[in-house]
Write a structure and sequence with these properties.
Layout: E1 2-5, E2 12-18, H1 32-47, E3 51-55, E4 67-74, E5 79-87, E6 92-97, E7 101-102, H2 104-119, E8 123-126, E9 132-133, E10 139-146, E11 151-158, E12 165-167
Antiparallel strand pairs: 1-2, 2-6, 3-4, 4-5, 5-6, 7-9, 8-10, 10-11, 11-12
Amino acid sequence: MFYKTRKNSTLKTFLFLSVLSLLSACNSTVDADVVEADIASYFLADTGIEVKFVACPEDVEYKDDNGFSCDLETVDGKKIKISAVVDADADQVSWEVKTGLLSSIKLEQIIKEEFNSSESISVKPDCGSTDIIAYQGDLIKCTVLNSENQKGIVQLVVTDNHGGVRLQDLSSVKWQT
C-alpha cells in the first residue's frame, strides 16, 4: 500500500493497486465486480469505515491509462468518489480517494498543538478510532481530556475539500469533571 498525506492538511489520500484477475472473461473490459470488492475491502481495512457498497462502471475498456470513477457509500450514508486508472501492462488498476477523507490522527495532532500553543494546556484529544468523511462546511466534534482529567468538546469546521479545518475558539471549551 502507498499512502500520501498532504502537508499541513488533515486530508488523507491513499493509492491502492488491485493486482487481481481484472480482465472480464468475455471481453476486454475491467471486471467491475472485482474492483468494487477490492476497493470495499481495502477501504475498510485502512480507514476503519464500513462500506455499504461500491459502484464502478461495467464498460471500462481494459487499456493503459484509462481512467474511471467509482462511487463508494458507507453504512452511515456518507459518499466518496474513487478515482481509478487501468495499467494493462502490469495487470492492475490503481485507485485513490482524493477528497473528503480526513485523518483522525492529523485532526488530533492539530488540536493538541493548538491547545499547547494558544492556551498552554496539554490535552489528549480523541476524534474517534476511524478516519472521517467530511466536506467543506461540515462540523466535526472531538473530545479532549486535560491534565486534570476534565473532559471537553472541541469543534472543527471543514474549510475546504482538501483537508483544511478551523478550530473553534479554544477558550470557550467548557470543561467537565
